[in-house]
Design goal:
alpha+beta, 344 residues, 8-stranded antiparallel beta sheet, PH-domain like
Amino acid sequence: MGKEQPIYTTRAHVFQIDPTTKKNWVPASKQAVTVSYFYDSTRNSYRIISVDGTKVIINSTITPNMTFTKTSQKFGQWADSRANTVFGLGFASEQQLTKFAEKFQEVKEQAKLARDKSQEKVETLSNHSQASSINGTDDEKISHVGPEAALLQSENERLKSAVEQSNTNAKKWETELQTLRENNARLVDALQESSANVESWKKQLSACKEESDTLRNKIAELEAQCNEANQERQKNAQLTVRVKELEAELQDKEQELENLRKQAEIIPQLMSECESITSKLQAAETRNKELEGRIEGLQLDIDDSRQKQGNMKIELKKLMDVLDGKLDELQEFRQGLSKLGADN
């Protein structure tokens, strides 16, 4: 026996239609979960399975009657009549949604082929059973002799039982098919109503966006007014500071004026003092001129002294040069005496 194997896996947010209202979506997972297509080689069937932790949130067997519908760029849904619900998947990108929808269509075609093959087998078995039943009746009319007749009769009974079981299964399948059609019709109605609700939600969303834009404009206007008010406050604060500065300057000027008034009271005394100072200054200027004459004389003396000092330096340098020559001769004389003493 074969095992059920995953053939495609993706991640998405899972939703289910509200069973009470059949309008609103109810989140089945708190975050994006793994959603996989599984193939059961034993039953030759396909399922979509998703597990959130330890909870199975999708277990949907795909039938040829199912349809996957894209309701937006990143959202798609399909109705499962057996589970009596509608599943919705929200993907992170439009490419993931397109890939999932293409896989759904591919698996749906495979399920249709599997159903057609199963029906062909049932029809073949039914026809074979009916033919065997007719042949067995003719054999009973001909004779009842030999073990082969008994074997044929036993086989005929077995085939009759298989045909009856097949007929019972066919009726059961017809009943189930009718139930599926009724559920599908209800789900189609719910889907249409959901689509109508989506349009209504879109209109409400558009109205909300317009209202939001209006509120944003009002907020921008209020912010502009607040900015103007803040600027006025800043100007007022600056003016207040300037007024205080001017008051302080006024107080300083008043203090200076008071000081000037006090000084004006002593102007006569200052005038007399000024005249006294002027006469002293004139005397000082006369004394200064005398000193300048003396300084010029002293300067001439200094220049003469500097010239004499320069001449003395020149003479002294000459004497130093002569002395250095004499010292060199004395050194040579000493070296000669030392050499002579060494030779003796």
